[in-house]
Input
Amino acid sequence: MATEKFESAGQSEIGNLTLTIKPEALQKIIAEGRLLELVNKLATEASAQISAQVVDHVAKAATQKQGLEGASASVSYIFDGGDFGTVPHRPHFGVGTIEVIAETALTRVAAGAVKARS
Amino acid sequence: MDEISERSESKSCIGSGTLMVHLLGRCNLTCLHCYMDGSPSRREQLAIATVQQTIAECDRLGIGTVFLTGGEPLLYPWFDEALQTAARVPGLCVTVCTNATLMTSRRAAALAEAGAEANVSIDGEPGFHDYFRNVPGAFRRAEKGVSTLVDAGVRVTIVTTISQGNLESLPETARWAADIGARTLRVQPLLSLGRGVEIADQRLTDDQLNSMLLELSDLDSQYHRRGLTCKVVGVSRRFLLAHPCGAYVCNGTGCHRRVAKEIKKVVIREDGTVLPEVTNLSREYALGNIADDQLSSLVNRYFEHGYERFDKLCRTAYDELSPTWTSALIPWDQIIAARSHRPVSDTRTAPASACGSPNCCASVPAKEQRVPSLH
Output
């Protein structure tokens, strides 16, 4: 098991990475003298996968209300919705949830739902 | 903080809806990626009476944000009148989307007086910007325009379309934006819409997109203290999965907001066509034409007849595509626009696409993704 250490905000260990290799494949690669090539290839692929997973963690945090509360209140997330730069001021995509919104000319609330100002 | 800045800062938008008004199709630039084919040869423009009447309806419709755009809105013959009308609507936040090359001190002062914000398109270092905007000297003129806006106290957002050609200059673009006094840098990954279809090979790969998102988040933290916020334009896969209403798929009592029918953004195109949510949507899904009736009447009629078709378009796309999404950022409007131009009987095929999903926008021939000319 490989453990990544990253010094940040007093936390020396923030997660871990695991690499599993089939023993017979490793033996063959050693015998062929291609260990360094293997590591370089794994590093490239791992980099892409790690990027994708970190982005996913950030995107997930941005959708959760608690992600903006408490200790992480000052965190701002890059995901903001909209297109061509036309992000509406409200509702603010990417953060929190609105339980029930008020009915307007552009919004028809489902029958039976309680009307309240968000 | 001076009085004008304070007014701009303190404006709060009362309604949750958004109105996007394409005042005209004409533009002094011919950008390579323009999603609505703006150019000097375009002649369509909205009548000022129609614009004023529509903006005046915002309050009643629950619209809290209006975007005045084009083409280049500063070329609209009655731009000042449109701006003043919007400024008079209580609680209406106004943003002018401009290339800033025609910005003057008088115009900037008018925006500040109206409490309006400005979205300015800047695509990176001068050489690339001029290439992308298709006019030599466009960057320097836009830079001067942004300075004029900032000096006047207008809150400026820099909108950068990111592609293979300017990916590496993103940190420099952020530094430039902070230096010039912009408040937000909003990065828009290149979309296959309008003329952008012809340079679709310049779009970022998923790996590049992920790296860009990480870098942008770091830039956001880095420049936060200097007053610059960095954001990406578009919705994340995570968000759309958690909140289908972000994909225009409301679900009545099943929706966490209990919304049965909703239009979050009303788009008025330069020929008067009124569209729900998506600027490049096929006219088949239009609410009607603003020259024919008031916006509120068009909305009411649409909810009774027409909305269901748009809802089905979005719902079908969501149900088919969401299980296969791999990309972090989903170009939902591009997907819906592309699908809206498909014949109804079109069958699904196709491999990789913008969102990493099969059966998505890439399955539509480029020609169909391009919105038909309004000429």
Notes: Chain A touches chain B through 47 residues (CB under 8 Å). DSSP finds two helices and one strand in chain A. The helical segments of chain A are 23-31, 35-63. Residues 35-63 of chain A form the longest helix (29 residues).
